[in-house]
Amino acid sequence: MSTTWTQPAQTLISEATAGWEGIWSLTYAAGFGALNLAMSVPLGVGVSISYAAMDFRDAQDELEWARPNLRATAAAVRLGHVRDVDDAVEARAILDQLAAAALDRAAALAEVELDLSDQAALSRVMARLITGRAKVTGRWA
Fold first, then answer.
1. What is the CATH number of the domain that holds 98?
2. Whose C-alpha in 83, 84, 109, 136 is 20 to 30 A from the C-alpha of 118?
């Protein structure tokens, strides 16, 4: 099965830069995707996905705190609505892939970033991406 999100998400994952802008773009797409998915599934499922969206938004806030110009310079990609509840499983997998790609880039950047406040911001971003992924995939207790 392929949702309408599959191609744009794969393009974003492969083309997003390795730096702050790429992390922000992936996190932004995951956050809005999670909100859209939460409105398309039954309430019980939607609640955990809404919490994931909040985690992704918190990660985005941390990125914007560290680099205030990101909102203006990074690509803001919205994946759209999930039209069929049957696509929800694949949509969750796509959100997980977006967050994983952002997490990988944040971890790589944290290894080379010399500024301690930037390292701290990236640590907070990674924590939020990890919890958001857990909630999207249902691995959150």
1. 1.20.1260.10
2. 136
DSSP assignment letter at 74: S
With tokens 């959150």, the residue in question is 140
Domains in the chain, number: 1
18 domain-assigned? yes
Structure token digits, residue 112? 């080379």
Neighbours of 97 (CB within 10 A): 19
User: pLDDT tens digit string along 82-121?
Assistant: 877 668 889 999 999 999 999 999 999 999 988 999 999 9
Which structural domain range is residue 24 located in? 6-137
> Average pLDDT in the 119-127 region?
97
